[in-house]
Records
---
Amino acid sequence: MWDPDGVRVACCQIHPRFGELDANRETGARAIEAAVERGARIVILPELASSGYMFRDADEARALAEPDDGPTTQGWVQLARRHGIVIVGGFCEIDADGRLRNSAALVDPEGVRAIYRKAHLWDRESEVFVPGDRPPAVVDTEFGRIAVMVCYDLEFPEWVRLPALAGAQLLAAPANWPAVQVQPGQVAGEVVRVQANACVNRMFVAVCDRTGAERGVDWIGGSVIAGLDGERLIGPPEDGGLAILFADLDLAQADDKHVSERNDVLADRRPELYGPLVAEALLSARDPAG
Amino acid sequence: MWDPDGVRVACCQIHPRFGELDANRETGARAIEAAVERGARIVILPELASSGYMFRDADEARALAEPDDGPTTQGWVQLARRHGIVIVGGFCEIDADGRLRNSAALVDPEGVRAIYRKAHLWDRESEVFVPGDRPPAVVDTEFGRIAVMVCYDLEFPEWVRLPALAGAQLLAAPANWPAVQVQPGQVAGEVVRVQANACVNRMFVAVCDRTGAERGVDWIGGSVIAGLDGERLIGPPEDGGLAILFADLDLAQADDKHVSERNDVLADRRPELYGPLVAEALLSARDPAG
């Protein structure tokens, strides 16, 4: 796993406790420090790492929400400054218009560099959150270009394509993957999709899942880091429990999209054929009465 | 693997010999008969099953090409009529304008129901073939709605999405997958991408690869049939050699796109956000001078 040209990426598969904001911030901080001690420069935490996930309703989420410059992201900024690192993690956001968002922040020593709001909501999240409507930001950090999305977003290859087209070298994705049945000798569909996202875009993908039952719901604990050929570089941990996963990634390798002498996974796309979308958009633009 | 509501699908991983049209047609016919004897009703052959793959140049391909109603597809129609089956297989086509195509046919007792022309060409294929520019046809057969694409097409999730949106229940894909290195305990990226294509669309995907070295090139021999959760139902064969893979698929299950009480993998798409494409198309439509 060690790569002399690589930057060490860590996924901290922690166990947030529902509603315990301070304790969860402390758990996250300790995991980040542990990852840094082992050389990590890019550290990823799960989705909704500060609040927990299993909100009964929007009121409960509102009581645990914070603005994009609240104590959770500001705590991460302090850690990023102290250690000269990048942190990506999920938190329950209340935006400037008072709407609840399932968000992830990317912070580095400069401060909060990006807030991403989950655009594809899972199950009862739609009763709590307003979905985002902006594509994943691609942030130029000291270590490379990093994009952020959250959990179910990863199941839409059109969405993952956008940061790849915008030059992302690493996609960092906080997740809370509900437990699923897996066939013997195989991995969960969630992990398969991450691997495919990595190789169809030749972009590294690091997903940080959570662990620990919450209000009767269990999780895959399937954190994984996938390489440019779609291989699992590390993860998921066999027992799905507490873990920090490390991989040394030479992110510049993601700039080369070749898969043969003549093939390039992005240049070989034929977007002019990928409508009906385009066709429909053109039609409605040409015929405003239609 | 047996499903009382299922239709038996077979992938015939055969060994075509370069340039031996008659012998390859015979090999294909024998494999189809063997699959039918074991109950298959949908039978898939590899890419370029009649001609072989390793053309030195376009002239060599031209000498092995045939029209869409040539001896290869007509042989398949005879077998389809005799046994009441669907056959999908690849052949080297010369179209009505004299252009060479890397094509696949879907035939059933009614005749040739669809000709699909590979739209994403691999490596030196671009020196031989003209890429297709039509989306995968979705054919309503006696057994279900079946779509066809070929090999490298599968690496473009936008392309696979089109037949899923058009209602395909099974994607049948002839392939010739060049050999690759695979990490211990993992499967080739080619297989990972097939599994992801299946689950992000909740559409069965059956890929028929070839086996047997040809002009120094070896193949994965990675034929695989993937289920709606992205699991490998069968394949790839461990030794990558001659094999017929069977799976009984209840194709109607693919009509249900739900993955939770509130989530549907197609309805949850947010295509209005998946531009730049759409944005660009709209702009150019609104401003013809632009």
Note: Confidence is low (pLDDT under 50) at residues 277-290 of chain A.
---
Amino acid sequence: MTYELYYWPIQGRGEFARLILEDAGADYVDVTRSRDGMKRMQDIVANGVPGLLPFAPPFVHVDDIWVAQSALIASFLGERLGLAPSEAPARYAALTIMLTIADFMNEVHDTHHPVAVDKYYKEQKAPAKLRAESFREKRLPKFLRYFERNLERNGNGVFAGKDVSYVDLAAFQIVEGLTFAFPKTFKKHHKKVPLLLALRDRVAARPRIAAYLASDRRYAFSEHGIFRHYPELDGGTAAPRRRSR
Amino acid sequence: MTYELYYWPIQGRGEFARLILEDAGADYVDVTRSRDGMKRMQDIVANGVPGLLPFAPPFVHVDDIWVAQSALIASFLGERLGLAPSEAPARYAALTIMLTIADFMNEVHDTHHPVAVDKYYKEQKAPAKLRAESFREKRLPKFLRYFERNLERNGNGVFAGKDVSYVDLAAFQIVEGLTFAFPKTFKKHHKKVPLLLALRDRVAARPRIAAYLASDRRYAFSEHGIFRHYPELDGGTAAPRRRSR
């Protein structure tokens, strides 16, 4: 039983799935790493398969099940691979928080694409500056407070249940992303999110996660993903453009 | 066993839950309709309960389970109340599509709030015009195509499985919302979404839904919800402001 993950060759919204598959030591294929993988993925986006006509990657396939939407993929994989709480109340708590993480990803994305998903950042820099300001001053503090308080509420150093689950792996990715994209802003909040930072360290120390992060299976952050480092959106001034000689 | 729905006294993101509870004839309380309901909801948002510290309404409570996030609430209620497919592949297909409907709601919201969630529409009219243009020209056609093709893919006149499920009730709400908020734009697409419009009619004709829509339990669309009718965002000119005498 091999899991197939279909996603672009970036971290982006596919990274939650990769972290779970890696942490569980699952048998999986990151389809777009294979020679014809990109074509196979785009064929499914264009034409669908019997069980799925996705809006966009990522999507996952195993047996006769096809699942899209990053938060659902995370809970689907987490529940099958032993990385989810077993009791109903905690299972729903986990998925509720995971969906809020997905919402957070959308808001991070919209800091650099506030007006048109299909246009480049450089074509929407002025509204992006406004949106990023609102993100830094209102939304990010609200989300960070939500995460920290939910860790306090649950106890055990994790978001739901007693053990590390898929939500905690996703939270790790959020911390890594903020550290990359909004270093200046995020640093100011460090003292307010001790549990979130401790969880980040705990996840990073898990042997399979550590091995994954050190491997070439982990894509680097880049300016093609959700988390992008534009200093001017982090409350600084734009980096000087490199000139060609 | 009474379901408690906590949401603002508007349609908004709580309407998916109301449609399911009504269609199932479930025993439920729309908490903010009670005298102290608004206070109870805001207390939970501020302080949480043992099973939940929500980011925002809506959230639902039954037995020892608390669930937030509109798409998860819909699948949770749908699965408990006989309004969800029973086989695993179709259950995941339903939730995948429901989550895409939730994404669509976010994009509708952002047409009037592209820059700052916490500010009024009138403070972000210029970027809203740009965002709405992108919505009308790129995103809405892409989502409508996604909905129509998924109805074609599944057959049976519904999104997943053989019978009307929570996803179909949500799709009804989407059609109603577009008809209210973007009448001019949506009408241009009518010929391209015959299955979606037929599904809308089929849902509207269900006896309990018809009774609900005719009752005062159904809030009216308004300019406090997700779907708002601003003619200038529908590709027209702004309505003249009413003057007080």
Note: The radius of gyration of chain B is 18 Å.
---
Amino acid sequence: LEVCLARRVRDAGSGEDRLIARHFTPLATAPGAFALTDDAAVLEPPAGCDLVLKTDAIVGGVHFFDFDPPDMIGKKALRVNLSDLAAKAAKPLGFLLTLALPGWLDDAWLEAFARGLGADTVCFECPLLGGDTVRTPGPVAISIAVFGAVPHGRMLRRAGARSGDRLVVTGTIGDAALGVALRRDRAAAERWRLTGEQQTGLERRYLLPQPRNALAEALGDCATAAMDVSDGLAGDLAKLCRASGVSAEIDVGRVPLSEPARTALGSEPALIERVLTGGDDYEVLASIPPGRLEALRERAATSGIALTDIGVVVTGDEEPRLLDRGRRLVFAHSSFSHFDR
Amino acid sequence: LEVCLARRVRDAGSGEDRLIARHFTPLATAPGAFALTDDAAVLEPPAGCDLVLKTDAIVGGVHFFDFDPPDMIGKKALRVNLSDLAAKAAKPLGFLLTLALPGWLDDAWLEAFARGLGADTVCFECPLLGGDTVRTPGPVAISIAVFGAVPHGRMLRRAGARSGDRLVVTGTIGDAALGVALRRDRAAAERWRLTGEQQTGLERRYLLPQPRNALAEALGDCATAAMDVSDGLAGDLAKLCRASGVSAEIDVGRVPLSEPARTALGSEPALIERVLTGGDDYEVLASIPPGRLEALRERAATSGIALTDIGVVVTGDEEPRLLDRGRRLVFAHSSFSHFDR
């Protein structure tokens, strides 16, 4: 880490060193972070464990809106990374933070950002280990590298799904994609016949992912393959199948939808494409041997996480088939069409 | 890591997924990188070792010029991080890469960037483990998180320097700061009476740092404290002293200068401020108990790295004293003045 996250901020003048130290040092609770006073952090890997490494960046205007509440942006930046640890069966250990800050950004923004992020470091037991801040003439950009631990050799891979495995997803699918559509098109709420509460619910799912880290250990025990759904269920399923050398059949009618998503789909059935390809779900997709499905269900219930069986892994190397009442849905170039199978 | 570093690039359309896979997969030689085909990487920590973690970002227009050769930018992005591992006595294990790419950036740029970076992954035995690419309306920004290994409990700290320790630096100081000044002010070369070769030499030191990883193990055996000199020797020494609860006396006349830097200083003595505070040196500053100095010297000589004794650690909590022929140099707000001691 840079001293106080702020080595290069010198260029920007002012007491930003101290400012950043004040906001971020409280998040650096791990002994190996040295309270952000050294050039690097130390992590003592848990005995018998491998480290799982992941980096994911979010950029203003691309992955969030500049006017989003900064505390939510702080949470989202960490959560999109935590979501991958969950899907890889890894327990969070800590993270490094790179902040690219435009000139307009004030102390109040930074304070709120750090407050949101800090709450999640506690909630997910994932302390700040270090970081860097840089000035940018561009938008706010936040890059996080997160570290987790799995028992040696036990990281859940994309590869590993076997014919006959059931395919499950956590939570509900499509809410964030509908939420961001609502934020870009205010008239959509009326078209989709959503109440104010339903609209807020969908928008909130875009603003604040709910990574499923509470299920990570159970996934490690039960799944043959897993990944987080961040680019849309259809595309991410295709990736998992490709990595595993298999295909799949999904019953679209079983894909878990929230109540606001069902309302929207009722008004505009074509939204099914957005639901299945829109992304930003940050749920887990996993393949589970049938014999372990019940055990995983029980552990998901204990964790209060919805888990839905949506289909099956089959042999072959074709694209996974998304079956809607017997008809195959095909999406191409963000449009979709129905074909008879 | 993101699949092929390219999960989010989907938004940008085109076959950028494949493009990035082609350029970056060859750099991902570690087995735990899974050839960039999974969502995360695995790192099996060497037995008995701690991990040293560091992240440092560079931004176009701030830490490099947009028209710099992309292969040099790729090398610099990794080297500024490797430099910290060297100073912390850690052996490189691998790194994560986040690339924020503006729309104007073409395949040729990316290919050259990856080629330069790739050469250094071999040279420094530090493979790519994963990464993320994002679109940005701003300048190119590169954030790297690097991982190194040290024997358990042996990371070199800033804290640890003791009264009586000698202060040493590797290489030469001030070249990069003069180099960037030359690039911003073409008339300076004439004022400083530099030959074309001297000018190129200084500019190259800004373009391409030479991290001292070959000395990392020896530093771990000999030093009581160390850090890399990236923000200027004067300021970084003050940080090391503050962390160690000591002060220091530096003989400015002993600070190692390259031949072009000596020429420039001969023409314009006031440049000493820029030399000592300008930064971007990426040399190592370390405190060495006198009894171990000779051993370190020998190992530096074996590695072909210049090592110079520039002063001594003393008790006290004042700012370190920079003594130029008996007179104390004081720099404040990027100006400096002479005071009699």
Note: Chain A touches chain B through 68 residues (CB under 8 Å).
---
Amino acid sequence: MNQPYQLYYWPGIPGRGEFVRLILEDTGTDYVDVARLPEGEGGGVAALEGLLAGDRPGLPPLAPPILVAGDLTIAQTANICFYLATRHDRVPPDEASRWHANQLQLTILDLVDEIHDTHHPMSVAEAYEAQRPEAARRARAFVALRLPKFLGYFERVLAAHSADAGEGLLDGRFSYVDLSMTYVLQGLAFAFPAAMGALAPKLPRLRQLEARTARRRKLAAYLESDRRAAFGDGIFRHYPELDV
Amino acid sequence: MNQPYQLYYWPGIPGRGEFVRLILEDTGTDYVDVARLPEGEGGGVAALEGLLAGDRPGLPPLAPPILVAGDLTIAQTANICFYLATRHDRVPPDEASRWHANQLQLTILDLVDEIHDTHHPMSVAEAYEAQRPEAARRARAFVALRLPKFLGYFERVLAAHSADAGEGLLDGRFSYVDLSMTYVLQGLAFAFPAAMGALAPKLPRLRQLEARTARRRKLAAYLESDRRAAFGDGIFRHYPELDV
């Protein structure tokens, strides 16, 4: 490919674009984060909105993240991750590994949807402040039932590997799924510090996975850089009243 | 493959298992719908729950649908559909078509998540009757904003094809995505007849796609058979008070 990848995502938050960025950063792959460029250089939200409005031929995307790879423009987080991992050696090439990785990635993204809906259970068109009682109720169910269910599942996946396997989610092997899992664990620690603190003793393998992944050389450099947007808005938000 | 596929899904509802069934039925592929067998024959919910409890080696699934294909066991609806469509000629073999099909399929499944949450916006662990006011509010936002946004998007995808293209969502070509879209349109007509009636004039291409797909020979035979579970519970539920 002659041109670097172009990633289109809402600027200012890590959001779902971060799942894509982590693969690009961990592999040291060149990319342009288009909406973070100034509008005068073809960037900004205007560039993203143009793409969503269908300013290019071919299949339009409904929502970001969107990846432009030469002539190919694709959307949907799990789809972009699957594509990049296949091309850049972040998933083993055998067929079973690929379908299992995609299964795990989609399960992580199901959790992400539920994390998002704790602060927006009624409508994405209204602010959190307009749906606080409902958010409190949804967050209670999330913290009590759904969060332990999802994280307990991933801990169980890690525990099921034989002792001589490595320590990644995908049959003990490192893959892009571990990058995504690490990001979600970091986001949960920001959004739900009390709930995650209470769960921590039950998740020793996930905590090890997070610590080990965050030490990967290129990834650690990225996490320290100003390319990594801070948590604060978007999916992972810290409202103390939801962290029960 | 010597053994037929085994599909594991909650018996009694079409649910997310239906996306998988439609590909198997449209291609005339042999499969066993395990949880619909009697428990005495290794079926029932017990068989499904055993699989979820990790009674087999390898990567456990978190939730159904689950497909067993020889030595491979995979979960996540979009993942299973992608796998089956690739193997059974329900997606063109070129790379762009496959990533675009998966993009569309994931967008359809995002819509399905939002349909589900209209009747369960607070917690999947509580009955609809325990969250009726919240469901009414979420359904209002869904009908007013989200449903037109999603269906308007798919109508736009169809409208973007050149006049001499075919009429499938994937660049005019028939694919498994059309099977999934047809199922969702049928489910929406059941769950939200008033809202869908009001939207119908704006969705001529989608309505044509649904009618044409439902006439496919093997699919039509399946839809008339007793293998097709009736709508009523699960994702697509008809509560008149939510259909505004």
Note: The mean pLDDT of chain B is 95.
